[in-house]
Protein 1
Amino acid sequence: MAASTGGSRLLLKLLAAYVVPIVVLLGLFGLLARRVTRQSLEDSLGRRLTGIAQAVSAQVRASAISFLEPGDEKTRTYRNVIRKLKLVQKRTGVERVMIFDRKLASRTDTRDGVRIGDHYYQAEADRVELERVFSGKETSSVLFKGRDGRFYKTGYAPLSDKDGKVIAAVAIVGSARFLGAVDQLATYLWLNGAMVAALGVLISVLLARRISQPLRALAAAARRIGAGDLEQPITLDSRDEMGLLAKTMNQMRADLHEREQQLQMMLSGIAHEVRNPLGGIALFAGLLREELEGDEEKLEMVQRIEREMEYLKNVVGEFLDYARRTPPNLAPLALDTLLADVADVVAGDAQSAGVEIARELVADTTVEGDREQLRRVLLNLARNALQATSEGGRVTLRCGRGDDSDGRPFFEVADTGSGIADEVVERIFEPFFTTREKGTGLGLALSKKIIDEHGAELAVETSDAGTRFTVRFRHSAG
């Protein structure tokens, strides 16, 4: 789970570093390109319409326009002007050509049904532009939407008499058909942006996977090394920085393995060197006890010597057991039978200490395990529990199956002692760590080592009401 989360975080970082900026830039580029293109085409349309309006202004006599009155639609002058305007409309492809005076009253219009004197209410919106026109300058309106839903633009030019006085305005209405092309361009750019973004996401996913897979392998190797597995080499076929890191970690693993072997040899050698003289001391202590038969005071001293030698033998034995790397001899093992055996063994010590031994054993709780090694673990946990429990207390040996979906088998040893301090719990499985005056600090460390080699888990829970050590196995036997 941790590795998966780490890979997801790496993917998010790659997306944030590459894909998101690209998408934002492409989006901004699309908006800017659409705006610039639209503005450029709009300006071009305005210049074109204004140019047509100027051409019409040059072709139509101002005097002819000035004399037109409402009802003159049948006169030759009006028909000639309309003919010229419609010819311009046809040749240029504009939507409409019209001429109106300062009061926005129509003088001529290519649209059917418009009469002389009709008011152009729509032109009211172009008051600013018309002030410019009637001052003698050409201009164009902003885009506006017609009744058909399409956009249009109007180009204006002044119509002046021979004295230079502006008497009317020529208006050319053209369709902004280019907006459809601009929208298509924007859609094309955004689709391309989406494709680039999708490609970026795909590349980021592949890149994240390419980076995270070696990282997961290195993380798994680091966990193995942390768990004490120093024999399995780290294999990572890469020539980049990942490969260098793997090579460095492999060298570290090899160095640790060599150092551990040297320490084990040294520990084993020291233990053997100490054990050999102990045999001789025990022999001479026995002879001395026979010589001092009847002298109770001196015999008590000899017994103290023998007790200390027995303690030293146990210490040396634990050193040797911890130094050896003996893989478990796995076989089907009934936990209820094993716990019952251990309960019988410690029953005498419990009776002497005034502590009750309780058994909560579920039959047919079978695991794959080494009987002797697990028996040693149970004896160590049970004796520790007895030492931590005051007279009148209780030590419980329990086995069964967990409440999880797999029903994993477990056994536990619980006591009703005063609990373990938090700072001690953090170091309780460290080799050579002990809070007792006479203790090697190897009992729980060796138990943890045995449980780890069984592929099981050893956990401790403690409070003021007591302590519980639980061993959970991964699978049942068979």
Protein 2
Amino acid sequence: MMPSPLRIAVLASGRGSNFATLLAARDRGELSVEFVLVASDKADAGAVQLAQMAGIPTLVLDPRDYAERRDYDFALFERVAASKPDLLVLAGFMRIIDGDALKPWVGRMINIHPSLLPKYRGLHTHRRAIKAGDAEHGASVHYVTAELDGGPVIAQTVLRIKAGDNEKTLAERLLPLEHQLLLAVVTLITAGRLTLDQNSVTFDNALLHKPLRMQGGTLVR
């Protein structure tokens, strides 16, 4: 059973729209969480500004202050650990994290990625989907492991690619679906309905053999 409220630390590099969605749900009383930290690698990240306005502790750690990526990652996660989170949410955190730094958090860290994983790991997913002539695109929430965008997928949302879509229009149409997807997954985690059992996702005490899908605003098998 997950603690209530669930203590969440958010890592983000950008504007923070996914974090803003979670924050708004908490403020409406729809999400039983406590945001214990918002951490970023960029001082001007919108997520940091949102957290500061909401009175949530923030951390900005500049990678340029560290000679090695591995040193930065361990320093970052040492500070994150000090906030004692139950769950880490990577919400647009644009860094590849050292696998050894991740190990203590496996099963307690999720990421949202703008593709239908395992398709299009890494960057420029919208451009790659259009270039490939795909009929569908989407987003995935997955547990984080040492493999880049390769952890077990929890849930996905699917979007039809329209004739004439470009990278910008596709990203704009997908973004609100990403928000909806991440909120739905975090809500299930707070209810204790989602866990990682070794390398498999468990939903309502049964192994999940394929990702949950958004349907009518709800996650279904």
Protein 3
Amino acid sequence: AQWFPRMAAYYDVYGWQHKQFLGAGEFTLEFGDYDVRITVPSDHVVASTGELQNPGDVLSAAQRERLKQARTAKKPVIIVTQAEAEAAEKARSAVSSGATKTWHFKAKNVRDFAFASSRKFIWDAQGVKSGDVDVLAMSYYPKEGNPLWEKYSTQAIIHTIEQYNKYSFDYPYPTAISVNGPVGGMEYPMISFNGPRPSKDKKTGEITYSQRTKYGLIGVIIHEVGHNYFPMIVNSDE
């Protein structure tokens, strides 16, 4: 994120919006359409603002079929399994070969753009209806995120959309994404980055999580996905 220059917005009342970004809040931006190609090592999976345009070039036939099934599924469908992610992490085939793939995304009427790329990503998805829009709720996380992320991340995205739709307006975008990363939480159009993970129990050595961590994850996803409504769509100046 924050990896390319953005045009400052112009207000008829206040003029140019040229405040510096100091990390304490976002500010009004111009909307635009994005057509982006991201070239990464061939064993990486990319999560991004927008819709994937070329699944045939970057996903296996089995993964494409899982993605199709996810659109009408009643629970999250695993697109890239933990076994597949662990195999990619272990082999690191693209490191030695130098092979790459280009992921192509398009996003309409958004005020920003962000993406994440990793060979460690597990990827799950489930469709949810938002007014007239079929939204694909998706989560991307490494094995270190399980068993917490596979249980709650995508479900928390869907819960957020359903509740915000009920009390404000219908989510208009085709995707809503939660990515596990080294942050507390941060949001961009259609994609958010959320930090909580399980930890190893000091007594048993088991990978587990507390109620605090569980609800911390659910809460931060609700918070960050909710930012799609404010300021990403309403475009409020915080």
